[in-house]
Every structure is written in structure tokens, then in C-alpha cells.
Design brief:
This protein has 10 helices and 8 strands. It has 295 residues and is an alpha+beta fold. It has 3 domains: 158 residues; 71 residues, Orthogonal Bundle (Endonuclease III, domain 1); 47 residues, no CATH class. A hairpin with a 7-residue loop joins strand 1 and strand 2.
């Protein structure tokens, strides 16, 4: 018999230290201690900096059937948390979390977004799900069915999805959903910021401008991300770009360094002997062209 996850094990692999949580989504959510959050109906399933779980929102009244039906078109879920209507969240725990801060490599983020899209397709999940909060599977208000205790690598999930694993993500912002929005937002801000940062001398002003740009991009999505998440991503990218020398001062310093390097290389090739050799080469080339023309 396949080992099953349980409430205690889930709490052990649930990574956030001060997660967002709430009992009423309409009333908003706020950061609180792990102990308090575990008593809330909804909570943040992954830390802000790391994606440690993938969650799909199933807006149908047969969530459990879709999650466990055979033949299964996705790997066995870690848990299924349902409301009394049968609608629920289906989750998979990752063995190796995916970094989503300013230090992140883009390829793992892109791959995670593709895996999430494949899982969503398998369950016909809600494309508008923000992916930030999940039904707390250890809360008594939900009917929780525990799945495998196996911790998944992204590659395993991708293999298990088979043909449902998308080859690419949408290129247009207006077609992005799920984690694809996070990736698209991060990438748009990053590429814009490399050059835009040169126009600003004040760090506070730069961070405000970057956040404004991020909010503009966010409105292009069919279902925008929460503004708090957009703000965090914008500040993260803005600080990284500023810190790593993409500022106006950093640009001037780099240009000066390149000029010095170019001058040094040019100087080595401008001795009198080398200049004379270049003139002889030019004269010889001209002579050969004249002789060939005369023939």
C-alpha cells in the first residue's frame, strides 16, 4: 500500500515562517505566526521566496473524482481539500523548492509554470486562481483526503503529465495565467529595468517607478495578481538591479572601464614599428590591386 501523507507530515513540509492567512478571503489576509496561521481556513502554501508546493483550484463539484480518477492523467496528489460543495484545492509537495526572488534563475521558474499549467489542464482547474492562498488542509472546515507522502521533483511531475505537459508558455501577457503570470511579470520587469535604471539617481524614486511599471504590466493579465505580490516582485527586481551596477553611476563606471580597456588595447598596437607595418601592408595591397587591374 502506498504511504499516505497526514496532517502532521503536511505541517512539517509546509515551509512559510510568517505566512499570509485568513478565515475570510473577502476580509483580506495578513502575515501571522505559523501557529496562528495553521488555525485559519486559508493560508499561504509556499514562502514568498520559494515555491515549495503546487496547488490547483478546481471550481467543479467533483474535485475528488477529478483528482483520483483512473486512468490518472497526472501524478498522485499530496492532498485534496474540499468544501461541502465538492469544490476544492489539489496540491503537490515539491522536494526541491523553486527560488522566485531576484536571485532566481529563469529556467526553473518557467519550468514550474509549465508543470502547473499541465496540472491545471488535467483537472480543468481555474485559470484565474491567484495561487497565493490555499484551503488549509488541516482545518476542520474542509474535507481533506490525503494522498501520497512522496515529495516530487518538478521533472517527475512533468513526466507524469505526459502529453498534457505544455511545451511552451504563452508569449503574450494577456494569455498568461497561474504561475505563468509570475514568470511573465518577473521577466518583463527584469528586461525593462536593465536599461531604465540608468535614468535614475535616487534609489527610492527608482523603486517607486519600478512598482508603477509592474502594476501596469499586471493589468494586462486576464486575471491580475494580488497587488501585494506584484509590489514584492517589483521591489525585489528593483533592488537587485540597483545593487548590481545597472544604475546611471554604474553605467558610467562601466563605460569608463571599457574605454580604458579599449585605449590600452589600442595603445599596444600603435607603436611606431606597428604603424609602419600597417602602412607597408596597405601599400602592398594597393600595389597588388593595381597590378591585377592591369592584367
Amino acid at each position: 500500500m502506498t504511504p499516505r501523507l497526514d496532517a502532521d507530515q503536511w505541517a512539517e513540509v509546509w515551509r512559510p515562517r510568517r505566512p499570509l492567512a485568513t478565515d475570510d478571503l473577502a476580509a483580506g489576509c495578513w502575515r501571522q505566526s505559523r501557529e496562528n496561521a495553521l488555525g485559519r481556513r486559508y493560508l499561504e502554501h509556499s514562502p514568498r521566496a520559494l515555491l515549495s508546493m503546487l496547488v490547483i483550484d478546481v471550481d467543479h463539484d467533483d474535485t475528488l473524482l477529478r483528482a483520483l480518477q483512473t486512468p490518472m492523467t497526472h501524478p498522485m496528489p499530496s492532498w485534496i481539500a474540499e468544501s461541502s460543495t465538492g469544490r476544492g484545492h489539489v496540491g503537490w509537495v515539491l522536494k526541491t523548492p523553486v527560488c522566485r526572488t531576484d536571485a532566481a534563475r529563469l529556467e526553473p521558474m518557467r519550468f514550474a509554470a509549465k508543470v502547473e499549467e499541465g496540472l491545471r489542464r488535467s483537472l480543468d482547474g481555474d485559470v484565474g486562481y491567484a495561487g497565493l492562498l490555499t484551503k488549509n488542509p488541516v482545518h476542520d472546515d474542509w474535507v481533506t483526503t490525503w494522498g501520497t507522502d512522496h515529495l516530487y521533483e518538478l521533472r517527475e511531475l512533468a513526466t507524469g503529465l505526459g502529453e498534457l505537459m505544455p511545451r511552451t508558455l504563452p508569449r503574450k501577457t494577456t494569455e498568461s495565467s497561474g504561475l505563468g503570470r509570475n514568470y511573465a511579470l518577473f521577466n518583463r520587469i527584469r528586461l525593462w529595468a536593465y536599461r531604465a535604471c540608468r535614468r535614475y539617481e535616487d534609489r527610492t524614486e527608482w523603486e517607486e517607478v519600478t512598482e508603477a511599471f509592474a502594476l501596469t504590466v499586471n493589468h494586462e493579465f486576464p486575471v491580475p495578481l494580488p497587488e501585494a505580490e506584484v509590489g514584492h516582485t517589483a521591489r525585489s527586481v528593483a533592488r537587485w538591479v540597483w545593487r548590481n551596477g545597472f544604475t546611471a553611476e554604474g553605467f558610467r563606471t562601466e563605460q569608463a572601464r571599457r574605454s580604458r580597456l579599449g585605449a590600452a588595447k589600442g595603445g599596444r598596437g600603435n607603436t611606431p614599428e606597428q604603424q609602419a607595418a600597417k602602412r607597408r601592408k596597405i601599400d602592398l595591397t594597393t600595389l597588388l590591386e593595381v597590378e591585377q587591374g592591369g592584367r
